[in-house]
């Protein structure tokens, strides 16, 4: 019993020291699980909703640890969570789209708060390195939800090498987001409508700015500390 309490205490200490690491781990874990559930229908929607709830709560938690106002995050997270659950229970696609729009705003807000947290410190810590990875995944998820909303509002906004006439799955949109943000540009998922292309251009700009401002600064501070 005492060992369990000590172990739990250690986890709490690590969570307070490295909240960004837990968010990054949750995002990467969901990446591993998505291919398993992506081909399912109703059960997949329930599992996606459950994963989204966990990641949303972690996103709010990370915002609370950063300079951002936590009430803004909860203002986005609370209705997003409620609408996500209702969309699964009622099988209502409209509620799912509205929930996705709120989740996109929440992820982008959490990413901006982590960027402010990293830029506000002149000493590179382990949590800031985890925050750099978590920020990248938050940006990727945020734009993926934006793509999902765009596809719902403007049918035919995206096409792909496989089943070009069908809507893109969530995993395909997330894949597009990662390849765009990382400037990989594999080209098997393409934007067709003007709103979709604008979103892709905005994400390309965000990816370049993230590397130029945040990552280069962390690398520079790390090298400066090593020379001292």
- Overall average residue pLDDT: 79
* First-last Cα distance: 46 Å
Strand arrangement within the widest β-sheet reads 1-2
Helix content: over 70%
Shape: globular
Helices, by number, come to 8
Radius of gyration over C-alpha positions, nearest whole angstrom = 19 Å
> Based on helices, strands and strand pairing, what is the structural class?
mainly alpha
Structure commentary:
This protein has 228 residues and is an all-alpha fold. 79% of the residues lie in helices and 3% in strands. The protein has 8 helices and 2 strands, in the order ααααααβαβα. It has a two-stranded antiparallel sheet with strand order 1-2. The longest helix has 34 residues, at 194-227. The radius of gyration is 19 Å and the shape is globular. It starts with a helix and ends with a helix.
List the helices and strands and how they pair.
Blueprint: H1 2-17, H2 19-37, H3 42-64, H4 70-90, H5 93-119, H6 126-153, E1 158-160, H7 170-181, E2 189-191, H8 194-227
Antiparallel strand pairs: 1-2
Helix pairs in contact: 1-2, 2-3, 2-6, 3-4, 3-5, 4-5, 5-6, 6-7, 6-8
Key structural traits:
228 residues; mainly alpha; two-stranded antiparallel ribbon; 79% helix; 3% strand
Quick overview of this protein structure:
The protein contains 8 helices and 2 strands; from the N terminus they run ααααααβαβα. Helix 2 packs parallel to helix 6 (126-153) and helix 4 (70-90) packs antiparallel against helix 5.
